[in-house]
Amino acid sequence: MLYRYSKVKENLELKAAGWYSLLKAQGYKQQFCSVKTFCLFIGYPRSGHSIVGSLLDAHPNIIIANELDVLRHFSFGMTREQIFYLLLRNSRNYARKGRVQTGYNYDVPGQWQGRFSEVQVIGDKKGGMTTRRIGRNYDLLDSIAGTVGVPVKYVHMVRNPFDNITTMALRTNSTLEAEIQHYFELCRINQNIAGRLKEQNLLEIRHEDLIGDPGEILRKLTDFLNVSCPEDYIRACSAIVSKKTSITRKKVTWPQPLIDSVHATIQDYGFLTHYVYDSV
């Protein structure tokens, strides 16, 4: 009964968003003509999507919505302009609210969050859910590209699995065993996604590398998305990035058999093989 109510509510919300965006998007057709790249995040909950999405949204030529869950709207049959408008509205609303999430402030003073000079890249930051939705229907990869009419580029956020799994368990009040299973299911889907994409359409970003050198990662991201990377933008964004990563795995007791199990499974995924439990 609760599931049925949730689906009815979701459908009503999507219908309302569809009508609203159909009317509002008309005023942005000219601005949306300059979009040349659509950007989506794939990955895992609690792996650094929020900070990277916020940094990209601070760029004068990039709009990145905060967890619109845009793939729901593709499934509902919305047009390119409707989807782009909803992404823009989400970015603006998040900026107005101050960009505070899970105790962190992602505001970049003096930059372009919620605004744009010329929008060349537009997209959504909803990593784990985007992965799950594509995993249910890999045909979405083609239908997304067909709807937006521009290249679709995917940012794959990666963090030390032990920190990722621990944070997932703490935030959901779940067990390590359950979140290990959840995490590696997402890994499996992301590996499948990578196998279906052209190499130039997927960029892997390690959370630890962002902490170590945010300027270098921003240059990689903007080069990947084919936009400029102004020095004032790099300085402003780098200033809000924490200088150290949170080693969440130390907040709980990891039994040795679970550590060994994760180490063994890591070997199945090339993007994880450099991680170990005792790494800094």
General description of the model:
The structure is a single chain. The chain is an alpha/beta fold and 280 residues long. The chain has one domain (2-159, 201-243). The chain contains 13 helices and 7 strands. It has helices at 2-24, 29-32, 49-57, 71-75, 80-96, 127-136, 140-148, 161-172, 176-196, 207-212, 214-224, 231-238, 256-266, and strands at 37-42, 62-66, 100-101, 104-105, 121-125, 152-158, 202-206. The strands form 2 sheets. Strands 2-5-1-6-7 form a 5-stranded parallel beta sheet. A two-stranded antiparallel ribbon has the order 3-4. Helix 1 (2-24) crosses helix 5, helix 8 packs across helix 9 (176-196) and helix 11 (214-224) packs across helix 12 (231-238). The mean pLDDT is 91.
Short description:
This protein has 280 residues and is an alpha/beta fold. The chain contains 13 helices and 7 strands. It starts with a helix and ends in a 14-residue tail after the last helix.
Give the helix proportion (percent range): 40-55%
Q: Domains counted in the coordinates: how many?
A: 1
Shape verdict: globular
| Average pLDDT for all residues | 91
Q: What would you call the structural class?
A: alpha/beta
* Rounded Rg: 19 Å
Q: How many helices does DSSP assign?
A: 13
State the distance separating the first and last CA atoms.
47 Å
> Strands of the biggest beta sheet: in what spatial order?
2-5-1-6-7
Total count of strands = 7
Low-confidence stretches: none
How much of the sequence lies in strands comes to 5-15%
Q: Could you describe the largest sheet, including whether it forms a barrel?
A: 5 strands, parallel
